[in-house]
């Protein structure tokens, strides 16, 4: 679908469901829109369903892991954190223990995959680079650079700790801090275009790892205690550990779960498989679509999935979209 047709489809979908009348307006809901692709899709799908199926006024709050959870801790907002990679945030455990948040579901049912990667063509040419020891022994083969995720992301702290534990810079590998997820993705695309070295952090589900085959660098065994310390800025004993398959949760404030049981039930049921999300994100990239356009694509092509998330009343309101 080209850009013009996309805009028509979005306009038609949104116009068809504009400003419905509701007997019971659920009021204003604040929801995170994290600065990575899968979260933007989740947020826009949730926003559409809440507004058009439940009569909510939804405010999407641009954020990332650490600022979002800090805001929940200090201000009790936003109401909903749609895609929380809990391995990257110790504050999640603290807020859970204090009873300030309620965990609703695995929004990515297969979990999130994180790691350090090299392009497959580099691994084929130099198989020794598939272990961290091989990378450290051959820094020039990976371009002498480690691509770090942006400031404010939970992975930034973990990568910093691992970089110190493995002494990347002492072994001739610069730690390059990306300013955004977009520049991190662009770096992979650029390396592939020229078959150049690339070494750094990435995660799945994403369109990038679907489009550009990457090989995970073996960081050794996973150690839960070390990984937890690496994520904690107050823990000084950084160590060596691989990444676990990460639980990716939707969480809400306890107050919201008590005051909005119907929306809480919706968000509890809202979950995507990695195959579904990879497919949607690949479509988004191929069509240079916005988050809103991609949400419309999901809603019009996966009604068999999301129709099971919503209440009977919402199904009636959204019946024109349900096949």
Keywords:
323 residues, alpha/beta, three-stranded antiparallel sheet, 10 strands, globular, disordered N terminus
Helix/sheet category: alpha/beta
Task: Please tell me how large the radius of gyration is.
Answer: 21 Å
Total helical elements = 16
The biggest beta sheet, please? 3 strands, antiparallel
Q: Helix-strand pattern, N to C?
A: HEHEHEHEEHHEHEHEHEHEHHHHHH
Mean pLDDT: 90
Q: In which range does the helix fraction lie?
A: 40-55%
The total of beta strands comes to: 10
Task: Return residue spans where pLDDT drops below 50 for at least 5 consecutive residues.
Answer: 1-9, 18-23
Through-space gap between termini: 20 Å
Describe what you observe in this structure.
The chain is of the alpha/beta class. The chain has 16 helices and ten strands. The protein has helices at 3-16, 37-54, 65-75, 90-97, 120-125, 132-137, 154-165, 181-194, 207-211, 224-231, 254-259, 261-269, 274-286, 291-301, 303-306, 312-317, and strands at residues 27-34, 56-63, 80-85, 101-106, 113-119, 145-148, 174-177, 200-204, 214-216, 248-253. It has a three-stranded antiparallel sheet, with helices on both faces. α2 crosses α14. The longest helix is centred in the N-terminal third of the chain and has 18 residues, at 37-54. It is globular and about 60 Å long. The relative contact order is 0.19.
């Amino acid at each position: 679908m080209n850009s013009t047709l996309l805009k028509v489809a979005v306009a038609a979908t949104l116009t068809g469901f504009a400003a419905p009348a509701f007997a019971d307006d659920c009021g204003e809901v604040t929801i995170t829109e994290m600065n990575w692709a899968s979260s933007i899709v989740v947020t826009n799908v949730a926003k559409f369903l809440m507004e058009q199926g439940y009569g909510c006024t939804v405010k999407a709050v641009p954020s990332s892991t650490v600022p979002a959870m800090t805001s929940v801790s200090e201000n009790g907002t936003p109401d909903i954190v749609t895609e929380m990679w809990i391995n990257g945030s110790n504050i999640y455990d603290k807020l859970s223990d204090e009873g300030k948040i309620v965990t609703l579901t695995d929004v990515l049912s297969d979990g999130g995959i994180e790691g350090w990667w090299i392009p497959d063509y580099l691994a084929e040419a130099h198989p020794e680079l598939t272990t961290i020891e091989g990378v450290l022994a051959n820094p020039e083969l990976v371009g002498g650079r480690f691509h770090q995720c942006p400031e404010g992301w939970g992975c930034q702290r973990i990568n910093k700790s691992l970089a110190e534990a493995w002494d990347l810079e002492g072994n001739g590998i610069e730690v390059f801090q990306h300013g955004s997820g977009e520049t991190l993705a662009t770096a992979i695309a650029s390396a592939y275009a020229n078959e150049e070295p690339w070494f750094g952090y990435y995660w799945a589900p994403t369109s990038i790892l679907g489009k550009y085959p990457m090989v995970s660098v073996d960081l050794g065994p996973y150690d839960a205690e070390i990984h937890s310390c690496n994520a904690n800025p107050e823990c000084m004993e950084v160590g060596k550990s691989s990444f676990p398959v990460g639980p990716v949760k939707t969480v809400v404030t306890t107050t919201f779960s008590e005051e909005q049981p119907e929306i809480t039930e919706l968000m509890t049921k809202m979950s995507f498989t990695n195959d579904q999300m990879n497919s949607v994100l690949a479509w988004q990239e191929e069509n240079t679509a916005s988050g809103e356009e991609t949400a419309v694509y999901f809603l019009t092509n996966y009604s068999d999935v999301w129709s099971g998330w919503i209440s009977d009343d919402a199904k009636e309101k959204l019946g024109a979209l349900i096949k």
